[in-house]
Amino acid sequence: MNTQRLPIWQPEEYSYPMAPRFIPFLMSYLHDAPTPHPVMLVIPGGGYRFVSPTEAEPVAMAFYRAGYNAFVLTYTVNPLDNAPLNGQPLSDISRAVRLIRSKAGAFHLDPGRLAVCGFSAGGHLCASLCVHWQDVSDPDPAYRALSNRPDAAVLSYPVILSPSPDPKLAHQDSFTALLGHSPSAQELDYMSLERHVTSDTPPCFLWHTAHDDTVPVENSTRFAAACRAAGVDYAHHVFTKGHHGLSLANEDWLAGRHGDTYATAQLAALRDQVQAGEIPDVAPDALDGFFAPPGKRSPEEEAPLVRACQIVRVWPSLAIAWLNDILDL
Question: Quick one: which of 51, 239, 260, 300 has the fewest CB in 10 Å?
Fold first, then answer.
């Protein structure tokens, strides 16, 4: 396996106030065989405040083992809610898709079989590209000449619905990190993605749990309905049990084994600056919570979670079978 860390922007192309020592990057998981492989670009969640390692390397490896050349995107996030992201994450994922396609020959991949897989806010980012790909230009003419439209998408418990008109169904924190505390009605409409599905939207596989009380299942239900109305190929699976953020829902996830933590690179660099007093008006411990280990689950929490995972863990197999059909593999 060939693993590389690939910055997606040149330093002069990238600027975000909460990332002075960070440039978004791809981590690759490439097969050595010279035959072209389909591509999976993984976009972890984290409420647009962090990039979750639990949905990064383990997911990439699952698709790698299924024959994909896989990539994980560590994109721009807003951990302190003090610098709205606006279009930066969408620019990040758009550039990542174009960069991957530009390296089709060198990386032995099929640029016409490129899928994205996003979780929670990462699902929102993938779905944003699926519905708004035509709106995203690129500052580099060479990349601008390449398509940024995915050929398919896997949306895992995705954030879809904006706080307007139904705040009870929206994940407010994601929209605050993305658009700030006082977004306009136009901004909220643009980022409520079920409103923008068209016949040009790529095929989408969605899965969710009915008991998700962080991002309600209506987020995926309404996006699936929009796909159906627009004539977009889709699949939609709702599992009865399980809370938000189950990732692969396998034994490694249950045991807290999540692989490399490179996904926290922006937060780690920012924490170093905060602790050194280089960023005024931010407490030295402001970012510590992002790095705290998860608490141990009680037996009352563990048993039902194990039962839920025994069912939910089938989703990668379902998604891969669906992708094999959609991508004609």
Answer: 300
